[in-house]
Specification:
Length: 674
């Protein structure tokens, strides 16, 4: 079985087991999926006079001398040579007497290591070596896998455990693709076949990545099929509330919003649970769509759970929705973790009695024991915060509610079609009218005074601004030398004495945060110095300028999210990115990319090339899980193949499809069928 624990392998006791766990290896499958991160090229012996410093080489020669040099750090210099001119020292800093005894003048050594120019000429410090009593001739050409290792567990030891496990991989599916099974490909990666060359290794890695991507896609299909067997309440009744809601908005929907609303409402009117992803750049107006869906649910006497990623955002949605929906007689409730237990209890009772028609809350609250009278619809905002693999597990008396998932994650379309293969996708590809583009500029620290006076001028005209820093307080040297909100607050108070400045960060008490946010919304606070707590969803249309201090410390996706806090009204907006020179080329590219592009999708694509997917989809950036082997940039061209192959398999060999899923996600049975 793939999930067979490694403890069953010979030589793996509790100590080794614990070390393997540090490498996230718990099962035999984990072990054989622990791929080398590079290979030593031992296909050619480099002549000693061709050895270059800074490169790894495979060399061979006779021992000319063995000298113990007693300086500060005693070391052994073993000089080897082919003839008089070309020689190289193998230098050992740790050695045993026994080891020394084995090295005799005249013997042959075959050595692999990193060459460098030392004081006594070319040397290799602690290379790997083998001694021979007579000329061993040319070595067997080899690629030696080098594994990510950990203390107490060398790459070589890991390699030998893996080779042992490779003899027991009968559990892997025998599915062939391009002439290889997963097992074949893994074997090639762990026991490379030199005759296939480097290309053979690359192909084998691709084959493994393909399997993983295929499993993910098949799993999506499986869930889609499971979901289609569920029925739910068709929300097909409608009265005049929809029109009333539209009239009370104070704006009319864009064409894109109208189209997406129709897509959502038509899903809701069916007895099949909706699972729709609503993708739209920051500020494209996703919340209204959610409101209209809520109205439809309410007209059918069902409740809506509305999940937000942060408390701040939950509160903002609560206010917006109350403003739009209360006049229609739809009661909105708020449920957050920072409410007192009695207050929460009151809310939960209102929910179970069905008095609250919409409940806005943070994610965690819906995983707790919140019971509904009749849950018809669940909405998840800013889905990227919750992870690609993580889907909602809300059910209502065995019935799945309709689900609307909203995200501003700008992912290229081909990728979205893959990652969200089991969902229907709606895209808002149009911003509300009158939106001014945001003018973005990049400034070095020398222009700081200018930036501050630009802020002063803008505030004097009655508009508001954000000033975002990477951290709160920078006296902690671990954080590096960038500026924190505490210092910046002091600086700006001194330089802009007539301005009302607020301070907002994640470590503040809840009530304090609320007070500051309210103050900013009502424009009593003109300038908000904040950490990235303002990143997600905050909507204050009168704020038209965002300064980002140490802009080079942020990822592209994050900067784009931050910038989305301005440009939400009809006035022209600005984003000023500050940096302290010198900055790396990569950082400069990021800042310039932001200056040149306002489209989130385009930026995402650039991000993929500038940063790599680990960071785009890695935990830090987007809160999403990444794949074990596959790399969404490197393996992008596989996505298309995965789709066509996946369809074929499902049709012709569904049992194999299940096997592939089970190999990669053995814990899948723990998931809800969502
Ligand atoms: P996001 O898609 O980032 O969640 P929001 O739903 O917060 O965007 O909308 C951003 C702002 O645009 C809000 O102030 C909202 O009221 C406003 N808005 C949404 N749709 C329109 C529209 N069609 N016309 C004018 N303003 C709109
Ligand atoms: Mg939003």
């Amino acid at each position: 079985m793939p999930s067979e624990p490694i403890a069953q392998l010979r030589g793996v006791g509790p100590a080794i087991g614990a070390r393997l766990q540090r490498l996230n290896i718990r099962t035999k499958l984990d072990l054989i999926l622990h791929l080398p991160f590079r290979y030593e090229d031992r296909t050619k012996v480099t002549p000693l006079d061709k050895v270059s410093s800074g490169t790894e080489h495979y060399v061979q020669g006779r021992i000319l001398s063995v000298d113990v040099v007693r300086s500060q750090r005693p070391s052994v210099y073993v000089a080897i040579g082919e003839h008089h001119r070309a020689r190289l020292n193998m230098r050992l800093l740790h050695y045993s007497p026994r080891q020394l005894n084995q090295l005799e003048e005249g013997m042959w050594l075959r050595v692999y290591g990193l060459a460098r120019l030392g004081r006594k000429g070319m040397e290799m410090i602690h290379p790997e070596y083998r001694a021979f009593t007579s000329d061993p001739g040319d070595p067997q050409p080899e690629y030696i896998p080098v594994y990510p290792a950990t203390q107490g567990l060398t790459s070589a030891r890991i390699g030998s455990l893996i080779r042992q496990a490779l003899n027991e991989i009968a559990f892997l599916p025998h599915y062939q693709y391009q002439g290889l099974t997963l097992g074949d490909a893994l074997r090639l990666l762990h026991e490379p076949d030199v005759s296939r060359g480097w290309d053979g290794l690359h192909e084998a890695r691709k084959r493994v990545a393909f399997d993983e991507l295929l499993a993910f896609l098949l799993l999506r299909h499986r869930r889609q099929i499971q979901r289609s067997t569920f029925s739910t309440l068709a929300l097909d009744k409608h009265r005049e509330l929809h029109e009333m809601c539209l009239r009370s908005l104070g704006f009319s929907l864009t064409t894109a919003q109208q189209r997406v609303t129709q897509e959502v409402l038509s899903d809701l009117s069916r007895a099949k649970p909706m699972l729709r992803l609503l993708q739209g750049d920051v500020g494209s107006g996703k919340t209204v769509i959610a409101a209209l869906a809520i109205v439809r649910a309410a007209e059918n006497s069902t409740q809506t759970a509305f999940m937000a990623p942060t408390e701040l955002l939950a509160e903002q949605h609560y206010e917006t929705l109350s403003q739009w929906l209360s006049p229609l007689g739809i009661q909105v409730g708020l449920l957050t973790g920072r409410m007192t237990a009695p207050a929460r209890k009151v809310r939960q009772e209102a929910i179970v009695r069905g008095e609250d028609t919409v409940i806005v809350g943070t994610h965690a609250l819906f995983q707790e024991s919140t019971k509904f009278k009749s849950l018809g619809l669940a909405i998840i905002d800013e889905q990227h915060r919750f992870g690609v693999h993580q889907r909602m597990q809300l059910r209502d008396k065995g019935r799945l509610p309709h689900q609307l998932i909203m995200t501003a994650t700008p992912i290229p379309r081909t990728l979205a079609m893959y990652l969200f293969a089991d969902m229907d996708v709606s895209v808002i590809d149009e911003l509300p009218p009158g939106r001014q583009s945001i003018e973005t500029s990049v400034h070095s620290a020398q222009q700081r005074e200018k930036v501050i006076s630009a802020v002063g001028n803008l505030l004097a005209s009655g508009q508001q601004a954000y000033w975002v820093c990477a951290a709160i307080d920078l006296r902690d040297p671990e954080d590096g030398d960038f500026r924190g909100t505490a210092d910046v607050l002091e600086e700006l108070r001194a330089k802009l004495p007539n301005v009302q400045i607020g301070h907002l960060h994640g470590r503040m008490k809840t009530e304090e945060k609320d007070r500051i946010m309210k103050g900013f919304r009502s424009a009593d606070i003109q300038l908000l110095v904040a950490t990235t707590v303002v990143e997600v969803g905050i909507d204050v249309p009168n704020a038209t300028l965002m300064v980002v201090d140490d802009g080079d410390r942020f990822g592209l996706a994050q900067l784009h999210q931050l910038r989305g806090r301005v440009g939400r009204g009809t006035k022209k907006s600005f984003c000023m990115l500050l940096y302290d020179p010198p900055i790396s080329e990569a950082s400069r590219n990021r800042l310039n990319a932001l200056k040149a592009h306002t489209d989130g999708f385009e930026l995402a694509h650039l991000d993929l090339t500038l940063r790599g997917p680990g960071e785009v989809f890695g935990k830090k950036q987007s809160g999403t899980e990444s794949f074990r082997i596959a790399d969404l940039v490197m393996d992008a061209e596989l996505l298309q193949e995965t789709r066509s192959e996946g369809e074929k398999l499902l049709e012709k060999n569904p049992e194999m499809a299940s096997k592939i899923i089970d190999t990669w996600t053995p814990s899948e049975s723990d998931y809800a069928a969502v």
